[in-house]
Write a structure and sequence with these properties.
hpI Integrase, Chain A; 18 helices; 8% strand; Integrase_recombinase_N; DNA-binding
């Protein structure tokens, strides 16, 4: 490195360069240079060394900037560069978000051959992985450089709906919280990204919703089924199955063919696929049995052999993604009704025809309101639910447009007449109480 020149030496060099009326460069030492133009202008630069191409940064003109001041500014720039280089080196030793998130996701992966699994199934793993795919651009970023600004930059480029982005932020926060516990990062900068008053938070905050949108059962034809008439065959089977069984969408998406017991007229769902974590059986009415059998025949014809009743677009060995069937409902019904809202439609209808509360609640796989009752009463009311589900399915059947009714094989007229008779008898009993109330 060249020795630092004195002020006197600098003045002499400048005067000499100007006298020649040519461009000249004076090495002042310490990466500081003064360049003299042909017109005699003297400008200070600091040289910034790089492994590729050296660059220079202008500091100011002499005599407005003295040699001493120019040297101080040059040192500040060089120190700043050194700090940035050290910071970059430090981050290069830090795990990237992609590397850490892969290790973190493996915690949720269920190995069917192992007895040490921490989760019931791979549903949580698959959902988290799917959500983090939206943030795939962050995978090469050091995990300690992730903050709301970097996350927002990635999400702003995505065409995913706001709900999917919000879920991605939640998944990211779970991962970063784990990184804090593991000592990888000191704190999670995105912790309040969804619940602070910042401008970024407001972009992704969930709008306030009061419950799930639903309609009374008598409006299902007009506001639900007719608006979904042009959906793919499998989607329509899914919607009708959800409406008739009143099961949660998550359980239906995981439905396997071997859970369906045609002989004993039941569908048996293992505990790990139920919200309440208990085995649950639902009566299999002739309506639902016909729906499933016709769909199974269609799958065989199309050579779509899958263990799942409703399979993914990408693979027959994977269950259908819930968002795949939820989005069409949201888009076609103007958000007047949701798939989960169908459970409200069913529960309200059961109350209207006088189904006892305990039976109606079990039909929706709800826990008993009293924790004491839940502990001691292990009866599942399966037999009592058989006529309830049969009549509910009959009522739904009467609400179907042809595009949905065609999904079910023609049922014997005698069977349909008996269903109508039973339902009319129940309604007549309710109408008696309505008359009494009006006196």
């Amino acid at each position: 490195m060249k020795k630092l020149i004195t002020h006197k030496e600098f003045i002499k060099a400048v005067e000499s360069a100007i006298s020649r009326n040519k461009k000249a460069s004076i090495n002042c030492g310490g990466n500081l240079f003064a360049e003299i133009s042909a017109k005699g202008l003297c400008t200070f630069y600091v040289r910034i060394r790089s492994t590729t191409v050296d660059t220079k940064k202008m500091l100011g003109r002499y005599p407005d900037l003295s040699l001493k001041d120019a040297r101080e500014k040059a040192n500040l720039e060089l120190n700043k560069l050194r700090i940035q280089k050290e910071e970059k080196q430090r981050h290069s030793d830090t795990l990237t978000f992609g590397a850490y998130s892969s290790m973190w996701l493996s915690f949720f992966k269920v190995d069917p051959k192992s007895n040490n699994n921490t989760h019931k199934n791979n549903k949580r793993h698959d959902n988290l992985r799917s959500s983090l795919k939206i943030l795939a651009e962050l995978n090469s970023t050091p995990i300690d450089l992730i903050n709301p600004k970097t996350v927002d930059k990635v999400l702003s480029k995505s065409d995913k709906p706001a709900g999917a982005k919000r879920i991605a932020i939640k998944a990211l926060n779970q991962c970063l919280k784990s990184a804090v516990v593991d000592g990888i990062i000191e704190k999670n900068p995105c912790e309040n990204m969804l619940n602070s008053q910042g401008l970024i938070s407001q972009k992704y905050r969930k709008p306030k919703v009061i419950g799930y949108a639903w309609v009374e059962a008598k409006y299902l034809r007009e506001k639900f089924f007719e608006k979904l008439s042009n959906e793919p065959y499998m989607h329509k089977v899914f919607y009708l199955f959800v409406a008739m069984t009143s099961l949660r969408v998550g359980s239906v998406s995981e439905l396997r063919w071997n859970w369906i017991d045609y002989k004993n007229k039941a569908i048996h769902i293992p505990a790990e696929y139920m919200k309440m974590s208990r085995d649950f059986s639902i009566p299999l009415s002739d309506f639902v049995a016909s729906l499933l059998k016709r769909w199974e025949i269609q799958c065989i014809r199309n050579e779509q052999i899958s263990p799942y009743v409703f399979f993914a677009k990408s693979s027959l060995q994977k269950p259908i993604r819930v968002i795949q069937v939820q989005d069409p409902v949201t888009n076609n019904t103007q958000k007047e009704i949701t798939l989960h809202g169908l459970r409200k439609s069913a529960r309200t209808w059961m109350a209207q025809i006088g189904v006892p509360e305990i039976i109606a609640e079990y039909a929706l796989s709800h826990e008993a309101k009293s924790s004491m009752v839940a502990v001691y009463n292990k009866y599942d009311y399966f037999q009592e639910r058989i006529p309830v589900m049969r009549l509910w399915n009959y009522y739904i059947y009467t609400q179907l447009p042809e595009s949905f009714k065609d999904l079910i094989e023609d049922l014997p007229s005698e069977y349909l007449d008996n269903c109508k008779k039973e339902l009319d008898e129940l309604k007549s009993k309710i109408s008696f109480f309505e008359k009494e109330r009006n006196y």
